[in-house]
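User: Second chain of the day. Same drill as before.
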Amino acid sequence: MEADLIVGAFGVNSTGWKIFEGLDIGYKKPKTTSAFITELELDHETVSGNFGSSIHIILIPEPKNIKFAGLIPKGRYVSLCILGKDIDQQTVKGLLNTPIVRELLPDSVMSDKFCKCFPKLSLTTAKGGFADRMVVIGDAGSTRLFKDGIGASYIMGKAAATTAVLHGVGKEHFSAHYLPVYNRTKIDNIYGRFVFGTTNAYKNIAPLTESMVNVVKKEQKKRNEAFPRLSSMLWDTFTGNETYKNIFLRGTNIMMHVKLVLEFLKALARRTK
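Assistant: Same format as last time:
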């Protein structure tokens, strides 16, 4: 079959990338890592009592390969999502056995009857995401680091469609009109790696963790008086509400860092007494 335009709309968890890598057009799928997702069926009373209507983000130093984990209440279910590097069954068990998680979830909550999976996540953008009369969208092309594949696919799909309909389907057309959108995601992910690197440092060093938590607590108490800068940065980092670049720029505020340093010094002083 000869087509005017071939669109590869697939993810890194499919095998579609193998077809495109075999076309000898320079396409190479993104580097990936593993995550973990499951739906835990509890009961309304347990979910309401332990979680309320709040998403719980778990930032703990062990297991070390976890960037963060999320517990999201949904009626009588709780979704558990673990993101990081090379997540496996031992990583999941390690997280479930930590004191903070044991306080929230009943013993032996994990069961083989629950739906669970270890999906792949893109860590980079693909190489050669377009050629003459060919373009790749979806997380096997360009997507946000640890974030919404659907939202990123919409943005890239819109850029590809606009290019094809209004300009053309040649490599030069995609290079001029699709590549800039593609690169914006790629560049934003560089900021994302820095943001998550900073978050990792704070969660792995106890005095830094304490200083961050104390600043957030004070912001929440005074949220009607001043903008809760650090709280908003953490929320946007873990929910994907904002670009990583904007989160990074928000973090350049001098006063926020002064507060963090003061709380860090207080935390050190408490440990030396």
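Residues 129 and 136 are 5 Å apart (CA to CA).

User: Great, on to the next one.
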